[in-house]
Amino acid sequence: MMELIGSNMAPIMFASLIIFLLIGYPAAFSLAANGLLFFAIGVWMAPHSAGTISLDWPLLYALPERFWGVMQNETLLAIPFFTFMGIVLERSGMAEDLLDTIGQLFGPIRGGLAYAVVVVGALLAATTGVVAASVIAMGLISLPIMLRYGYDRRVATGVIAASGTLAQIIPPSLVLIVLADQLGRSVGDMYKGALIPGLVLSGIYLSYVMVISIVKPEWVPALPKEARTLGSGVTSLFVAILATVGMGYLFVMWLYPTHGDNADILGAALAILIIYVAAVLDRKLKTGVMSHLTQQVIMVLIPPLALIFLVLGTIFLGVATPTEGGAMGAVGSLALAAAKGRLNMTVVSQALASTTRLASFVMFILIGARVFSLTFYGVNGQVWVEHLLTSLPGGQLGFLIVVSLLVFVLAFFLDFFELAFIIIPLLAPAAEKLGIDLIWFGVILGVNMQTSFMHPPFGFALFYLRSVAPRGSYKDPVTGQMTDGIKTSQIYWGAVPFVLIQVVMVAIVIAFPYMVTHYKGKPIDLNNVKIEIPKMPGLGGLGAPGSPGSGGLGAPNFNILKTEPKGN
């Protein structure tokens, strides 16, 4: 009996950890306590394990070094930087300006407000990377407007919650930073790999809204004319967009000979800067070249786009590391808040407090995970997991399907940080052994973990929205009419279609890996590779083929010896 328990210590340890977490103990303390408890049990059981357990008390001396390795990990510095950036931007009123402007732009069409929420959710994801900030901001600003103009409550709440979770997969997502760190891969490569799936998922959300506007138009009515305070002027906006595209193309042609592949990003940045300056001058000088709507769209959209370029553009260009990009983003958010006149000590202190809480939360989970992994590896847990997963039928596809189902189920009970720190280190070795690209694997898990925010009963995005959505009837301050509140069941039912969309997105990423693996660049055709060795005088045959009296690297060339016929 003792040998049976000793040889199966790894699955017993993992099952007990899941039980601790389900009971409700904090993840960091559950990991550390579980690791220390089973370390003591493992030392006692080692003689009865037939060599399976390799634990002894002196092994605990390795813990301080493991803790120090966590604390000096520069990659994780990006987490507090991006958190600070997101909270400052949320306090600066950028979300409010974006929702108002984009809502006015899409207002004349059915589902316009829902389209605006998805677009703004993607923009906030690319600038803040924080789900809570996105969901709460859009819930406070756009939900009352959607209720005012007769949107179905399930559609309204579902769109807001789902759009907020785009911050999980669109860079600079905090989850992608953690996944890259746990998988031992570059954060920049993870960002490049996740960008297209994030944009595709946003497009699917927009397509879902479009289908609803066709099938159930009464659920997503257009904004009435009296609510469109920015007026018309869409033609002027199209002209401005065409002018920007034209200038961008000319700049790319001009910069390509000197900047190569980076010319497209630099050319687009110059064109956008010029159109922004033109809009500011047009408003200041009151020349009337652009419509009021066009001016507002340009002046509201360009600053967050500039911040996105400052953060992601510099990372993709190789100018900055993700940590440096996060630092620049934090400074840029302070500059935007100051430009809006909303930068004060209250905003800064709130942002610093929230950032400290999140960074401490992540650090404690990581330290607990180090204690757990020390014991888990000491009982050959990694071998058990690897044998369990690599023996699944179906090879890579079977592995990815089973892992996706496992993460989807665990996401009902664990949040994304707990999943990343507990599950990923166990899955990564098996994935690498099966020849799966770990960036692709990380993006699949990132899209999958997105569902942890959405599916009942523990979806955090649903809780965030519940905290700001009106519970009972209230008097609308604009119309003066009584409006019914939002039931919790309506929030849950509204999330269901978007959870299904996210599951479909996981299948799409598995089926089309090049959506992610494009980060490697174009594959090299080995049939067309030509190796040329430069001429190197003095090294004989290596650089001067045929030079008399010498061979490669100065060796004698015996091939020049000639046999002369003997004379008669």
UniProtKB/TrEMBL annotation:
<feature type="transmembrane region" description="Helical">
    <location>
        <begin position="75"/>
        <end position="93"/>
    </location>
</feature>
<keyword id="KW-1003">Cell membrane</keyword>
<feature type="region of interest" description="Disordered">
    <location>
        <begin position="547"/>
        <end position="568"/>
    </location>
</feature>
<feature type="transmembrane region" description="Helical">
    <location>
        <begin position="113"/>
        <end position="143"/>
    </location>
</feature>
<feature type="transmembrane region" description="Helical">
    <location>
        <begin position="194"/>
        <end position="215"/>
    </location>
</feature>
<keyword id="KW-0997">Cell inner membrane</keyword>
<keyword id="KW-1133">Transmembrane helix</keyword>
<feature type="transmembrane region" description="Helical">
    <location>
        <begin position="293"/>
        <end position="319"/>
    </location>
</feature>
<protein>
    <submittedName>
        <fullName>C4-dicarboxylate ABC transporter</fullName>
    </submittedName>
</protein>
<dbReference type="InterPro" id="IPR010656">
    <property type="entry name" value="DctM"/>
</dbReference>
<keyword id="KW-0472">Membrane</keyword>
<comment type="function">
    <text>Part of the tripartite ATP-independent periplasmic (TRAP) transport system.</text>
</comment>
<dbReference type="GO" id="GO:0005886">
    <property type="term" value="C:plasma membrane"/>
</dbReference>
<feature type="transmembrane region" description="Helical">
    <location>
        <begin position="397"/>
        <end position="426"/>
    </location>
</feature>
<dbReference type="GO" id="GO:0022857">
    <property type="term" value="F:transmembrane transporter activity"/>
</dbReference>
<feature type="domain" description="TRAP C4-dicarboxylate transport system permease DctM subunit">
    <location>
        <begin position="14"/>
        <end position="515"/>
    </location>
</feature>
<keyword id="KW-0813">Transport</keyword>
<dbReference type="Pfam" id="PF06808">
    <property type="entry name" value="DctM"/>
</dbReference>
<feature type="transmembrane region" description="Helical">
    <location>
        <begin position="262"/>
        <end position="281"/>
    </location>
</feature>
<feature type="transmembrane region" description="Helical">
    <location>
        <begin position="355"/>
        <end position="377"/>
    </location>
</feature>
<keyword id="KW-0812">Transmembrane</keyword>
<feature type="transmembrane region" description="Helical">
    <location>
        <begin position="236"/>
        <end position="256"/>
    </location>
</feature>
<feature type="transmembrane region" description="Helical">
    <location>
        <begin position="12"/>
        <end position="32"/>
    </location>
</feature>
<feature type="transmembrane region" description="Helical">
    <location>
        <begin position="438"/>
        <end position="465"/>
    </location>
</feature>
<feature type="transmembrane region" description="Helical">
    <location>
        <begin position="491"/>
        <end position="516"/>
    </location>
</feature>
<feature type="transmembrane region" description="Helical">
    <location>
        <begin position="155"/>
        <end position="179"/>
    </location>
</feature>
<dbReference type="InterPro" id="IPR004681">
    <property type="entry name" value="TRAP_DctM"/>
</dbReference>
